[in-house]
Design brief:
Blueprint lengths: L1 H26 L7 H20 L1 E4 L3 E7 L14 E4 L5 E7 L3 E5 L14 E4 L5 E12 L4 H7 L4 H18 L4 H7 L1 H18 L2 E13 L1 H76 L3 H9 L15
Antiparallel strand pairs: 1-3, 2-4, 5-7, 6-7, 7-8
Helix pairs in contact: 1-2, 4-6
Length: 324
C-alpha cells in the first residue's frame, strides 16, 4: 500500500513536470509533438493509481478496522477488518483503526501516575461514614468481535467516557458496603472481587473486555489515620503491660518455688535431726539397760569402773576399816 502511494505521488510529480514543459514549449513557439497526449496519459495514470492506492488499507495485528461506507444503508460495514491488506472503495469508504491490545487506565493520588494529571484518586465513604481515597488501575482491551459497536457508541472516547466513570462509580458502590476496618484489612480481597465483577459486567455490555482490576492503595483521612495511630499506640502499651504482668508472675512463681525448695530442705534437715536424736536416745537407753543388767550380776563392777576413771597419777591405797 505504501509502495502504491509512493508511485502515485511520483506520477503526479511527473504530470506537473510534463505540463510545465508542454506549456513552456508552447509559449516559446516550439510545441512538443504529442505533448498534450503525454500530459493526459500521465494524468490518467496518476488518477488511476492514486484512486487504487487510496482503497488499499493495511491493518496491523494489534488493530481492527471499522469501515465507514457511503454504500450501505447503515453507513458502515458490520464486519470490522481483520489484520492484513484490504481494499475499500476509494472516496466512498474510509477506515478507522482501533487498538485491541491491552490498555491500562490508572487513577492515582500521585500527580504523574494516572491519565489525568494531579490528584485523580477516588473519594469514597464506607458504611460507617469514614472517607477513604482509593488508587486503582483498570486493565482492559476492546473485544475484537465488537469493535464496530465500540465505534458507534464511543468512538475513541471509550477510555475517558466509559472506563473512567464506570470504574469510579463501581468502586464507590463497593466501598459503601463495608466498614472502614473491613476495607482496610479483613475484607479487602472481597471488596476487590466485587469491584472486578461489577466492572466486568458493565464493560462487556459496551464491547470492552476487563483483563484485570488492581486496587493499588487505600488511604484514610488525616483524622482517621491519627485515630488509628493512637489506637495502635494504646494497643502496644496494653501488650507491654500484659508482658510486664506476666514477667512479674513468673518472677513470683520462681521465688515461690525457691522458698518451697528451701522449706522442703529445712523439713528434711529437721526430720533428719529428729531421727538422729531418736536413734541416739534409743542407743543410750539400750546402753543403760545393758549396764543395769551388768550391775545386777556383779555389784563390784561399778566400783571398778569408778576406779579406772580416776586419773592414773593418783595412787589409791585401801586400808582396812579396823582402827589403827
Amino acid at each position: 500500500a505504501s509502495l502504491m502511494q509512493g508511485v502515485s505521488i511520483l506520477l503526479w510529480l511527473a504530470f506537473i513536470a510534463a505540463l510545465v514543459l508542454v506549456l513552456a514549449a508552447s509559449w516559446r513557439g516550439k510545441p512538443i509533438k504529442k505533448g498534450a497526449m503525454i500530459v493526459i496519459i500521465v494524468a490518467v495514470a496518476a488518477i488511476v493509481l492514486s484512486s487504487f492506492s487510496a482503497g488499499l488499507v493495511w491493518v496491523n495485528p494489534q488493530e481492527r478496522g471499522v469501515v465507514i461506507s457511503a454504500l450501505t444503508p447503515e453507513g458502515y460495514r458490520k464486519q470490522a477488518l481483520d489484520p492484513g491488506l484490504h481494499f475499500v472503495v476509494p472516496f466512498a469508504e474510509n477506515v478507522v483503526l482501533y487498538q485491541i491490545s491491552k490498555q491500562t487506565y490508572t487513577m492515582s493520588i500521585a500527580p504523574s501516575e494516572g491519565q489525568v494529571s494531579g490528584d485523580d484518586s477516588i473519594s469514597a465513604r464506607t458504611s460507617d461514614g469514614q472517607e477513604v481515597l482509593v488508587d486503582a488501575s483498570v486493565i482492559f482491551q476492546i473485544d475484537p468481535t465488537k469493535v464496530t459497536q465500540v465505534h458507534i457508541q464511543w468512538q475513541n472516547r471509550y477510555d475517558r467516557d466509559l472506563v473512567r466513570p464506570v470504574s469510579r462509580g463501581v468502586i464507590r458502590d463497593a466501598i459503601s458496603q463495608f466498614g472502614i476496618q473491613e476495607v482496610y484489612s479483613k475484607q479487602r480481597g472481597v471488596v476487590e472481587q466485587i469491584i472486578t465483577d461489577g466492572l466486568k459486567s458493565v464493560l462487556e455490555e459496551n464491547g470492552i473486555m476487563l483483563v484485570d482490576f488492581v486496587l493499588r492503595n487505600i488511604q484514610f483521612s488525616p483524622e482517621y489515620a491519627a485515630s488509628v495511630e493512637q489506637k495502635q499506640i494504646a494497643e502496644q502499651l496494653a501488650q507491654q503491660a500484659v508482658f510486664v504482668v506476666q514477667q512479674r508472675q513468673q518472677e513470683a512463681e520462681q521465688a515461690r518455688q525457691v522458698a518451697k525448695g528451701q522449706a522442703d530442705a529445712a523439713v528434711i534437715v529437721a526430720q533428719g535431726n529428729a531421727d538422729s536424736r531418736i536413734i541416739q536416745a534409743q542407743a543410750e537407753a539400750e546402753s543403760l539397760k545393758l549396764i543395769q543388767e551388768a550391775l545386777q550380776g556383779n555389784p563390784d563392777l561399778l566400783t571398778y569402773q569408778y576406779i579406772t576413771k580416776l586419773s592414773p597419777n593418783i595412787e589409791v591405797m585401801q586400808i582396812g576399816s579396823a582402827p589403827v
